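Input record (Table S2, row 338):
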Amino acid sequence: MIIVLKSNATEEQIKHIVEKTKKLGLKPNISRGVERTVIGLIGPEDILRVTPLEIFPGVEKVIPVLAPYRLVSREFKKENSIVKINKDVHFGGNRVVVIAGPCSVESDKGLRAIARRVKKAGATVLRGGAFKPRTSPYDFQGLGEEGLKYLSEVGKEFDMATITEIMDTRDLDLICKYADIIQIGARNMQNFSLLKEIGKTKKPVMLKRGMSATIKEWLMSAEYILSNGNFDVLLCERGIRTFETATRNTFDINAIALVKQLSHLPVIADPSHGTGVRKLVGDVAKASIAAGCDGVMIEVHDSPEEALSDGEQSLVPKQFDDLMEDLKKIASAVSREI
Ligand code: PEP
Ligand code: MN
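Output record (phosphoenolpyruvate complex):
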């Protein structure tokens, strides 16, 4: 349920509504937009049949929310949300943010070499997994805290924000200490305890779409994070499982365009996992920017044949350089910048 306030609603009236709804057992969330202030209510809405909020001073209208996700929806907030990571990196504005780096942090030297190249080409966020969700327990599992240290050091050295994946709530403090953005991977999109814990932090988070998740399920997972108090959420389309076997996943370009309409949260495209094939990454990255994404995440490795994970979909730095030039042109064609 969303309460739209009159444009001249006073602070006193807003306070009154907030107190009253809390007393009714609902959880109010205020969103102050440029034109209007709205209050999103979470909880048993049936109570409002007994106490109609329309009669409260300052209320213009009460809209029942049809979508099961509320705080995430455009109905709750009309304007794009801007997720600010630092003074330069803002997701959701006119600039398309480029996240790049290796799938896994493998060594400080290797990470530094990759960071130097991607930063020079225009990436502003450095990625690298330290806790890796591998299908086989015999595959490289990540360097753990050592990897996080390298990521943080190299990020600082090149003045880049950093992002890394969390797999377990027990690592939350550690990851918050070292990284600027927490990534929730496809396999954990519906790990509700993890979503709730991250929702209680103030750390920006990028929620990847589960490989078999519908758009509604994905947005409901984001709702877990927002409803626990953390509004700094990025949504990342990374491809879904379909009957098609020619590519690792089927990148859902529809999702980029649709989620931009359904939600105010920034949307990121991950064409590396979305295709799983190096020679397709660039084309899908370009298509994603044309479709309206707010950021792209690209895996880059200076020696993909030796990469400990996802070498087959990683671009070499020269390919990344060339792609950045193309991405700038596409961005400018849709009135965005990189
Ligand atoms: C990754 O970003 O390296 C990763 C494991 O992604 P996903 O969760 O999308 O598979
Ligand atoms: Mn990967």
